[in-house]
Structures are given as structure tokens and as C-alpha cells.
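Suppose a colleague, Dr. K., hands you the sequence of a protein chain of 213 amino acids and asks what its three-dimensional shape might be. Before reaching for any lab equipment, you can write down a predicted structure in C-alpha cell form. Begin with the sequence itself:
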Amino acid sequence: MAFLNDEIKKQLEEIFEPMKNEVTVALFATKELCETCEDTKTFMTEMAEVSEKISLDVYDMNEDATLAEEFGVKRVPTIVLLGENRKDFGIQFNGIPGGHEINSFISSVLEVSGAGEELPEVFAERIAKVDKPVDIKVFVTLGCPHCPGAVAKAHKLALENPNIRAQMIEAQTFSELSDQYQVSGVPKIVINDSEELVGNQPLEMFLDAIERL
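The predicted structure, expressed as C-alpha cells, is then:
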């Protein structure tokens, strides 16, 4: 099943035109016990076809367990966005970034390629001061119009500081994890399993929560 028609592909070609550096989409999947792995692979294959600067590497979670551990991949399907020279910025999508989440995927690819927007100095300074490991989970559903904004902000934080890692988690695909974190509304943002935010909060709220850790 194709996800992108010719019209959407043409739009994506234009959207990805500003990309500066190459981006590798590292997809971790399995051949068994994964309902959405094949769809995610098809979707990412189509995405990689719209720009010469996007490449797709597919890995098996079991056969490539060492690499999965290196990237901090714990579930399938998971997408890790790698920058120039395969640099890992700690940016992940757990589950297929379809529906509204195509917007956060596009935004994150542009950011990783070096074509993102500069942050206001006041935010850049606060992010630079983060000197402890920070893990941001953003639980989403694909029909949620407010979720991509929260994912994009979390990924921007990871891009700006190597101490920060951020992952989109599709709540329905990973329902057990959603139950564990008591996700009743999305986007739900969990930072280091101790700070929680609900809704597409401004970047300042992310930073306030991180600074409380």
C-alpha cells in the first residue's frame, strides 16, 4: 500500500529542498510480532525517495542488537534520525510518524540536516546549561493535531544539547507503555519519568520542567 501520492511527493520535494546535509533514517524493525513494522518501512522508503539527501537503513532489532543498544532503541518500530557522518542527536520516533505526525517528521529531518530555525538567545542559553542526562518522551496519537508541535520542540532540545534525548511514542502502538505512564490525553510529555506536561506546551515550559530535575 502506497502512503504518498504524486501530489504529496511533489510537495515534499519542495519542502525538503532547503536541506543542507544528508540525513539517514535508521529504522529498527523485526520480522515477527510487529504489526506496524512493514507499514513503517514502506512509509520511510517512500519518504527517502523524495529527496537525494534522505537515505534509509533498515535494521533487524534482533540481528542488529548491538547497534540498537548503541542508539538506545528499546522497541519496534523505531526510527532514529542521523545527521552528517551518521551523528546521533538522540532523536527518535517510536511508531509510524503518519497522520499529523508527518509534520514532526518533516520538521525533525530539516532540523537534523542543518536547515532548522535558530532559537532566541534566551532559550539557547538555557538549553546550553543543561548538564545532566535528560530523557523526554512525548506520547501522541496520529489523529492529534496538537501533538506534532510538542514532538518538534522535544526534538529541537535534543538537537541543541547532547545531554538531551527525545522520542515520539505512538500511544496506541505501544499501549502497555501508555498504561505505564497513565496516558489519558495527548500530547503527554514525560521528562526523566518525574516531570509531566500535557498539551502542546511552549518551549519555556519544557525548560522549566528540565530545570526542576
